[in-house]
Write a structure and sequence with these properties.
The protein is of the alpha/beta class. The chain has eight helices and twelve strands.
Length: 232
């Protein structure tokens, strides 16, 4: 069965261009040009990935993203933005987007991002032994069940947050640059997208750390990148 993609973009030319090129990848594509309607379609849970414009009528991309995550709907989201402001991109990631592209973008880059996100989801969905667990202090990561418990309380993570956490936790003490994490977790190397990593690190800390300003699990190595604490 082909993967299903939802494209929510109010510019009809861009909407049709994205849909046409994703269909060329043998993907099933539904399109929408309205924020509120796009949100309702996304809530159905029938999609493997969502391409979401930031600026939409009635309900913008940030609100859609925030609302989906608040309802524990973790469909991967690739956010599109025409804004040059770095803050807008960071806010999108902080709201729960998995990745972003700034307009104008090349069709080839769009296809590469979608391919990488779907490939990562396929890898994550492969069954793992339920005994495949990692435990550090009060943090328990059950890879097979894709669950994270902190002091016996389940923590809700997006697919990308979980992927980033398990990648680092399996190599405690190893220092990763942002470029390495982009390449190994998101599936691409691209200078200028380090904020994607930074925002996901911040979200993980806010969910896992008792005091995010003094993290025990996700540690910063200044001037280099991040590592997972081998001891707590």
């Amino acid at each position: 069965m082909n993967k299903r993609i939802l494209v929510v973009e109010d510019d009809q030319d861009i909407n049709q261009l994205i849909a046409m090129n994703l269909k060329d990848m043998n993907l099933d594509v539904d399109t929408c040009d309205h924020g509120r309607r796009g949100f309702e379609m996304a809530k159905s849970g029938q999609y493997d990935l969502m391409v979401l414009d930031l600026m939409l009528p009635e309900m913008d991309g940030l609100e859609i993203c925030r609302s989906l995550r608040a309802e524990n709907i973790y469909t991967p989201i690739l956010m599109l933005t025409a804004r040059d402001s770095e803050a807008d991109r960071i806010v999108g990631l902080e709201m729960g987007a998995d990745d972003y592209l700034t307009k104008p973008f090349s069709v080839r880059e769009l296809q590469a991002r979608v391919k990488a996100m779907l490939r990562r989801m396929d890898m994550l969905n492969k069954p793992a032994p339920e005994s495949d667990q990692l435990k550090v202090g009060g943090l328990l990561i059950n890879v097979g069940q894709r669950k994270v418990l902190l002091d016996d309380k389940e923590i809700e993570l997006t697919s990308t947050e979980f992927d980033l956490l398990i990648y680092m936790a399996r190599q405690p003490g190893m220092v990763f640059s942002r470029t390495q994490l982009l390449d190994n977790v998101w599936g691409y190397q691209h200078s200028g997208y380090e904020h994607t990593v930074n925002s996901h690190i911040n979200r993980l800390r806010n969910k896992l750390e008792k005091d995010p300003s003094k993290p025990q699990y996700i540690l910063t190595v200044w001037g280099v990148g991040y590592k997972f604490g081998s001891q707590t």
